[in-house]
Specification:
By secondary structure, this protein is an alpha/beta fold. It has a single domain (2-195), classed as Alpha-Beta Complex (Spore Coat Polysaccharide Biosynthesis Protein SpsA, Chain A), CATH 3.90.550. It is built from seven helices and seven strands; from the N terminus they run βαβαβαβαββαβαα. It has helices spanning 23-44, 58-63, 76-89, 107-115, 153-163, 174-177, 183-192, and strands at residues 2-6, 48-52, 67-70, 95-98, 122-127, 134-140, 167-170. It has a seven-stranded mixed sheet, with helices on both faces. Strand 2, helix 2 (58-63) and strand 3 form a beta-alpha-beta unit. The longest helix has 22 residues, at 23-44. The two termini are 28 Å apart. The model has no long low-confidence stretch (mean pLDDT 95).
């Protein structure tokens, strides 16, 4: 299974943390989070691709044993569709999309998400803590549903699977649900660490 990690690039990442972190601190945090997610992903799979408009991520991605695909178009979903097309051209039977800001992600979380893909084909979704966004999305076949990331994506991904007549599994695990986006998220993580 190919794991795809979309990323905006270090300079563009974590802008919602601007009230509490300066640009250098935000960049350092984004670098740490991405390296951690890639390290966990690499322990779970040897087929990892980061899709990003930022070629500067190359050294971080390569150090983690992953491959960087430089995004040609604009937007998260367009980048993921580009990465999907490359994966399908390479013969990948299934895809797993993980965001690069999951500080408590574990190999067991990735295993649970991939194991939840329905045996006959379908979708496994890991929602965020509010059950609004999608932090992880696994699908088999690789083109089972279109990507619909962004605000409200959890519902949109479920609706896309239903429209395609596919079974959906929802995987709720703390390591998949907790993403670090806001000052409140950062405070929670600094206080609770892996328990956040």
């Amino acid at each position: 299974m190919r794991i795809i990690v979309p990323h905006r690039g270090l300079e563009a990442a974590k802008t919602r943390l601007a009230p509490v972190l300066d640009p250098a601190e935000r960049e350092a945090l984004a670098r740490t989070l991405l390296a951690r997610v890639l390290g966990v992903a690499r322990a779970a799979s040897d087929d990892i691709v980061v899709i990003s408009p930022s070629a500067a991520l190359g050294p971080i991605v390569e150090d983690a044993g992953a491959r960087l695909a430089v995004q040609r178009g604009m937007g998260l979903n367009a980048g993921l569709e580009q990465a999907r097309a490359e994966a399908m051209a390479d013969g990948a039977p299934a895809l797993l999309v993980l965001h690069g800001d999951l500080p408590n992600l574990s190999v067991a979380d990735i295993g649970a998400l991939t194991a939840a893909i329905p045996a006959a084909g379908g979708v496994a979704i890991a929602p965020d803590r509010a059950s609004i966004g999608t932090n992880g999305l696994a699908q088999s076949p690789a083109d089972a549903i279109p990507f619909a990331f962004g605000s409200g994506s959890f519902a949109r991904h479920r609706e896309a699977a239903a429209a395609a007549g596919l079974e959906v599994a929802v995987v709720e695990r703390p390591g998949l649900a907790f993403d670090l986006d806001t000052p409140a998220d950062l405070a929670r993580w600094l206080e609770l660490g892996d328990a956040a």
